[in-house]
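Lab notebook: predicted structure, single chain.

Context: the supervisor wants predicted structures on file for every construct in the current expression panel, including those that have not yet been purified. This is the next one on the list. No modifications to the sequence; it matches the entry in the shared construct table.
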Amino acid sequence: MKKIIYYLIAVLLLWGCENFLDSDPLTDKTSANFPQTAADAEQMMAGIYTIMNNLQSQVDRSPFFIWEVASDEKLGGGGMNDIQAQSYETFQFSDNEMLSNSWSVLYQGVHRANFAIENMPLLGDEVVSPEKKAQFTGEAMFLRAWYYYQLHTVFNEVPLKITTENVNLPAASADEIYGQIASDLKNAIEMLPSISYDQTQQGRITKWAAEALMARIFLFYTGFYNKNEIALPGEGSVSKQNVISWLEDCYKNSGHYLVGDFHELWAYTNSLSIGDYGYIQDYMAETGKSLTYASDNGARNPESVFVLQFSNFAGWGIDRGYSNTYMLFYALRGLQNLERTYPFAGGWGQGNSIPASLVDQWKQDEPNDVRLWASVMDIEKEVVPLGYQRGQWDFVLESNYWGKKYNGVTARASDGKLKNDYGVIMYGTSDNNQLSHTDDLVYIRFADVLLMLSELKEDATYMNEVRERADLPPVPYSLENIQKERQHELAFEGLRWNDMRRWGDSYAKAALESQEGVAVYNFGAPAIHSALHPDGYSSRYDATKGFFPIPQSQIDLSEGMLEQNEGYSLSGEGLYRGWQN
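Prediction complete. Output recorded below exactly as produced.
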C-alpha cells in the first residue's frame, strides 16, 4: 500500500491552541512530564510535521493555494460561493477571518517546533543519542523556518516567537524574520546528517532540503527587499557565496537527480492509467520512449527534495489533511461522470484555471517545449471529445486550459469501472472523490535546485541540464532566460508568485496585467476576464505588495501590538463583495 507516513503516529497528538500566537498546551503533556522516552521524542517530532497536513485540510485558505491564484498562472474561479479563491485574484479579502486557519495552524507549528528545540537537550544521551537529538533539532529548526516563510509571504511582518513563553509580541521586521529563518536553516544544515537522500527515512527533512530552502528564502529576501545578504541574529550573515556553496553541496552530494522524462513526475503516468491516456500514448509513440511514474507503487522520487506526503488514513475532520485535497479542488468542476474527464478526476474547479495569455506566451517563447502540454490540459482537445461539459454548477472564470500537475487521476478497475483515484486500486484508499488522493505535494524539486544555482552563479550550465531533459537546446545565461525557464519548468507548483515579487514591482505588475482581457467562460458562456477589483491588478499590488490581511481576531487579541496590513481595513478597503458579473 501507499507508504505509511512516519509522522502519522501523531494524528491525535497533544497541542491544540486557542490564544494569541497559539501557544498554550491544552492537554496534560507539558515540559514537566514530556518528553521522557525515545518514543516521546519521536511523537514530539511527529507533531511538528503533522502541521503541514493540518494546514491543507482547508486547501482554499492555504498558502500554496494563495500563491497559485495570486500569480499570473491561475485565475481565482470556482462557483458563486468560492469567494476566498476569487478574492486572492486581486489581493482582497472575503471576510475578516478568511485566513485565520492558516495563521493559527502555522503558529501551532512554530510552537511545537519551539517546544522540541527547548526540550530535546533535556533528554539523556542514554535515551536518545546525541546524533539523533541533533537530527531532530535540525528538523525542528527547518520546519520552524518553513512555517515562518509561509507566515511572512502571506501576512508580511508578523510576531517572531522563538520560545514557548506565553507572551504578547509585536510584529517583527522582515529583517528580523529572515535573520531567524536563515539562522534556523544554517543550524539545520550543520545538524542534519550528510548522507544521500535515499539513505534517509522517507518523509523526513534532510540536510539537502535545508540547503535548498536556504537558497529560496535568500533569493526572495534579497530580491524583494533589495538586499545583498541576510544578517543573522547577533553576529554574522548569510552571503550569496554561502548559499552557492550550500547548493553546490546539494548538487554534488545529495544523491538527488532529474528523472528521465518530465512527464514521469506527474501522476497521470502511473502504471494503472497510462495505458489508456491518449495524450501520453501519442507522446510515447512519437518519441519512442517508455514512461514510468517516478512515484509509482510508492517508489521514492529521486527529484523530490522536500514534499508533503499523504496516506489512506484521511477522514472528515482535521484528518482530511491526510488526503491530497489539492487534487480535489484543482479538478474540473461538477463531479461529472469520470468517463468525461478521463484520466482526470472531478472536483470543485477552484484555482486551477489557466489564463490563455500564459499559454500563448509559452508557445511563443518555446514552441517545442514538451513541458507545456505535459503541464497544461487543452480542454477542447482532451476532454470535450469525451463529453465534458463546461459551466457545471455555477462555474466562473473557467478557462480553456487546466493544470495537470495536481489534478486527481482515475483508473479502471478489473470490472471496467473507473475509480475516483488510481490509489483506490494501487494503495487501497477510500473510493471517495474527496479522500482518495495520495500523491505528494512537492515543495522543492531538484530541478529547482539547478535553476537556483544557475541564477545565483549566473551560469547557464545547470539551467541547460533542465532544458536538456525537456529536449530543448542550450541557451546562454541571462536573467530573462532564467525567468522564463523557471516559469516553464516549475509552472503550477506554488513558486511563481514569490518569484514574480522578488523580480521587482514592474515585473510583477506586468505579469498580473497579462491576465486582463483573456477569454473565459462564466456559467458556460464565453466572456472576457477583467480584474475582480475596479482599481485593477496593478493598483491593488501597489496598495498591498501582494500581502493579505491579518485575521482581525488576532489583531484584537494582540491588545494593540498588531496593525492591519496596508490595503485592508474594517471600513471595507480591499473587501471582495462577491461575483458581480
